[in-house]
Amino acid sequence: MITKQKGTNDIYGEAAKKRAYVNEILATLCEKYNYGYIETPVFEASELFHRGVGETTDMVQKETYDFKDRGDRDLTLRPEGTAPVVRWFIENKLYGNMTDPVKVFYNMKMYRYERPQSGRMRELTQWGFECFGSDEVISDAEVISLAYNAYRLLGLDDVVVELNTLGDTESRSNYREALVEYFKPHIKDLCEDCQERFEKNPLRILDCKVDAGNDILKHAPKTIDYLNEESKARFEKLKDLLELMDINYVVNTNLVRGLDYYNHTVFEISLNGSYALGGGGRYNGLVETLDGPSTPAVGFAMGLDRTIMAMEENGVNIPINDSIDLYILYVSDTEQETAAYLTQDLRLNGFIVETDSMKKSLKAQFKSVDRFNSKYLIVLNEEELKTNKVTIKDNKTKEEEQVSLNDIADYLDMHM
Ligand code: AMP
């Protein structure tokens, strides 16, 4: 038997309905913020992620699905959405003549070769929002607002925005020096990966999953103490805006996020201090890194799978339809013909309708009525059909009424 791959899931039944519900709420919200939908290809040139996400990140070093196609091209399955969206932005020269920001949202599958566990998949779905063209703090606030309110609309009222700033290039580089000084005497006590990070990108040490609880990391210098005046003022302004917008945030000075491309704002959204539901920040350098003209940008990505898990764990009622409107029962061939066109008619009129297609006995069809939780049922009857009438029955109250074939839709409309 061929089974599904580790870290992947078939999505069907109730789980599929829950996703559809969440997807619809998120899409509607993104439209309100005037973000347009985008979908990028599942595979891209490997170089996009090597340069875009960063050669020294865990994601690129350990987690990408890389392969060669039959034309010997180096390709990678998309592990995240920002680099592909930036590639799209540059390729379509959307940077020219920007009088308004370019704002897009996506809902895409991502692929990461991670050790699968609860909430950590190899095929995962992320919703993300990216905004290009504005370096104003109001754009950071808008993206944080969109992310924060997405969770609240989904019923996760207690989400918190964990906020930090890396500052501008100058602040970040001062901070980096301070980190190198600090870690130098301790480096042999950290994991092998961290020893490598120390050489290539010491900020990443703060993100290490292995050394997360280590006191050395806990007492490391904080970005916030190395900000220049401009970066400090910017951070203060962002906090003011978030307060005005009534967004629940805490400053978390340990937050640096694993990717190379962030500057200034970084944030994660979490629930009751448990794992992150999503994260994002400002990435003013990325468009240039990928050969476009310097363009400010800010974005956020949320894990759909984890969001739904959090909703379930927190008792959020996810409304899913588990009933149909009408079941049409029949026995004879003539009745079957009527069933065939009536179901089509009523479906096209907007009702969820089912009929027998397994040659079941009438008794077995009645069982299907209950299994489908049908609100109404009609037992077709040749004699009655000669007068162009059927009897429609409310499956709960058992009340019934005779109506013309042409009036079934009206009847359902009036009674549901
Ligand atoms: P990242 O792109 O790593 O910042 O992740 C953003 C969000 O995507 C995280 O906060 C998670 O909610 C979700 N996520 C990341 N990796 C996984 C994974 N392997 N499985 C499920 N969700 C994930």
Oligomer: single chain
* Widest β-sheet, arrangement of strands: 1-5-6-11-10-9-7-8
Largest sheet, strands/sense/barrel: 8 strands, mixed
Number of helices: 15
Radius of gyration: 28 Å
Instruction: State mean pLDDT (0 to 100 scale).
Output: 94
Secondary structure class reads alpha+beta
Distinct ligands, ions and cofactors found in the model? adenosine monophosphate
Topology summary:
Layout: H1 13-32, E1 36-37, E2 43-45, H2 46-52, H3 58-63, E3 66-68, E4 74-77, H4 82-91, E5 102-111, E6 123-132, H5 137-153, E7 159-165, H6 169-183, H7 192-200, H8 215-218, H9 229-244, E8 249-251, E9 263-271, E10 276-282, H10 286-289, E11 297-303, H11 304-313, E12 326-329, H12 333-348, E13 353-355, H13 362-371, E14 376-379, H14 382-385, E15 389-394, E16 400-404, H15 408-415
Parallel strand pairs: 1-5, 7-8, 12-13, 12-14
Antiparallel strand pairs: 2-4, 3-4, 5-6, 6-11, 7-9, 9-10, 10-11, 14-15, 15-16
Helix pairs in contact: 5-9
The structure holds adenosine monophosphate.
Write structural notes for this entry.
The chain has 15 helices and 16 strands. It has 416 residues and is of the alpha+beta class. The strands form three sheets. Strands 1-5-6-11-10-9-7-8 form an eight-stranded mixed beta sheet. The chain has a five-stranded mixed beta sheet with strand order 13-12-14-15-16, with helices on both faces. A hairpin with a 5-residue loop joins strand 3 and strand 4. Helix 5 (137-153) runs parallel beside helix 9 (229-244). Bound molecules: adenosine monophosphate. Adenosine monophosphate (AMP) is lined by residues 80, 112, 114, 119-121, 124, 126, 276-279, 301-303, 305-306.
